[in-house]
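Morning. Coffee machine broken again, so started the prediction first thing and wrote up yesterday's gels while waiting. Chain of 589 residues, entered below exactly as on the submission form.
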Amino acid sequence: MATVKTKFRASASETKEGTLFYQVIHNRVARQIHIGYKLYPQEWDAENKEIIFPPDTGEARRSYLVSLKTAVQEDTKRLRSIVSHLDRSGNTYTAEDVVAKYRSPTDNHCFLSFSRNLVGQLKQIGKQCTADTYTTAINSFARFRNERDVPLDDVDSDLMTAYETYLKASSICPNSISFYMRNLRAIYNRAVDKELTVQHYPFKHVYTGIDKTVKRAVPLNVIRQIRDLDLSLYPLMDYTRDIFMFSFYTRGMSFIDMAFLKKKDLQNGILSYRRHKTNQQLFIKWEKPMQELINKYDTSGTPYLLPIIKNNRAELDTVSNSIMLVKNNADVTITGIYITGYASPEGSEAHNLKLSENRAKALTDYIRTHDRISVDLLHVDWKGEDWDGFVRVLGDYPGLLKRDSVYAIIERYPNERDFCELQLRKLVPSTIYQRLLNEIYPVLRRNEYRIEYNVRNFDLEEAKRQIETRPDLLSLSEMYKVAGSYGKGTPEYDKVMAVAVRYFPTSPAVLNENAVNAIDREEYDVAIELLEKSDTATQTAELLNTLGVAYAKSGRYDKAEDAFRRAAEAGSETARHNLEEVRQVMDQL
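Came back before lunch.
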């Protein structure tokens, strides 16, 4: 059996910190693990092999040493767990094997690593809902651990009790705590079933039950007051009130069920629908107040009963026109239409994932039926809450109060988005969140679509016609053929190459060709602008050299020197020669 020791190596200078390291010994072969933990000689008890606190230790230093001591304890427990697993396997191993497993970032004998691998496996076999549920619990536990993994053998009752205390201190309600614990328990039991650890019953002292939710209701007179409010000056509030009242009239219909009600669901005075949550079919008698709400809104351009899903005629026509433009072109064959749904962050992450799914599927269904597109060509995906889009749109609101705080909250909780959204709701004053809800969130609720297609090859005469009408259908090589047919230096050649830059802006060959042509015409500023605007120009030696030539020709030798230097560093011998030449010119000025 291998042994693990913690050792201290003092610095050559008595005034500097030394370093801790771990030593693994097996079959008289020793290997070291350097961990980068530093402390002074007086902070190390060599006899007991542990960190100590000298009497004159300040508060900040004490805090550092406490965290260091905890880290060492966890590291050594993990190393001993690895040794224990290797011993139980019955296979021959070396000290090097122990070190390799310790350094492995995906050690499946650690709880977080095992959990995340399990989530990946569930997604592969189509169990997306279970994977999403597990991910929520894993992210919460990872925040508690500050992303430090823990060996499966060390998942015990003390750890889970500490986690429960952390959740309570974070004002998490008992049912949510139970939700996290039950899912973590299910993950842990899977590890036990795989014989990755023995059953320690770590969840026996934490709450895993379900509290009865106290029913909350408002008196009927309050409902009447809400109904009779004059909100004509506040259209968004008026709309929100109408959605609430429709839910009340329909016996508490959920928002998602209201969103997907279609006009065909209302027949002969009976509204029929299936609950998204349970697929149970329900029937509701259509009453006058319901019709009055429906009559307030123009939904003539949509199949939906309520104006929640904004698939209005203009938006749908835009999608249809794009598809038909490709479909009706005899030179083009559609190979796939890709639709991705997104949602805004209000509400739970799981709920918004479902909303984005339904949004994408609704558009897919419309395209299939309206544009008569084969189902084999339609590929639907959904991403849930669009936090990247949130950050981008937030950049358009420089005057938003406490915008930096919003950015900070988003960055602080990348793996706990429900908690993140809760912190945004708590921002003071409340008008900050109201602006997010009213101005930014609606932009995030959308579908994006992409049409992929193949274009047949064109002969030279056909390509010449296409360059005037549909240059987007030509390949770069076809554009080169057209340009070459006119001859280099002719106006027609330059015109075609300008089109090539527009449609293939990242092609180094096209950029260089156009820049060189501009230099030949002594249009140095045109060449410089062309290259400076392109990210590609800063990545290739040839383009940097051409940029240097343009600057040198225009008399801006300092910029030419910089461009030639970068090109030379990228390996261009021509640029190295040009750099010497331009420096000689600069020395003579």
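The two ends are 77 Å apart (CA to CA). Going to sketch it on the whiteboard this afternoon.
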